[in-house]
Amino acid sequence: MTIRPILHIPNDVLRKVATPVETVNDEIKTLIKDMFETMYDAPGVGLAAPQIGELHRVIVMDPSKEEDEPNPIAMVNPEITWASDETWVYQEGCLSIPEYYEDVERPVKIRVKYLDENGAAQELEAEELLSTVVQHEIDHLDGKLFIDYLSRLKRERVTKKFQKIAKRAAG
Length: 171
Ligand code: K1U
Ligand code: ZN
Hints:
With 171 residues, the protein is an alpha+beta fold. It is 29% helix and 26% strand. It has a five-stranded antiparallel beta sheet with strand order 1-2-3-6-7. A two-stranded antiparallel ribbon has the order 4-5.
């Protein structure tokens, strides 16, 4: 297993639409293992494959609290099949936009269908934190970031900050 570098904005890969996985083969199983290792190391509660430069429709999450047992969940080709009209607001972060947190309003409950790490079809009903994390990660698969839900002013401010950081790093 390998801890992989996490891409930060304004990397173009983060704005691309990821491709559905045809078969959950050994390559995808290794990708899932690398993603869990990268997510736990960061640390984070979720990670989408494009965040490590892999344009496959794969996400991993662990919504458990520190004091609880780990609850790793991997989803291949996840699709939201139902979302509640009721919403809630959660302060989101993103490993591709380090140290930036803002409130985002999303459906409080969702149903999601997906393939697990063995290629078996699954369906899960999620609420509150897990619902938010699944939606945030599926957005990554569609090239969407949580800052896209913010005002233009906030989005432009944070984007400019990370553009400057990238320019400095490039020398
Ligand atoms: O997809 C990502 O960028 C990971 C992101 C997931 C997420 C967090 C909060 C709301 C929606 C989606 C993160 O994990 S950011 C880091 C974070 O939330 C965290 C880090 C350490 C301990 C607890 C939380
Ligand atoms: Zn993110």
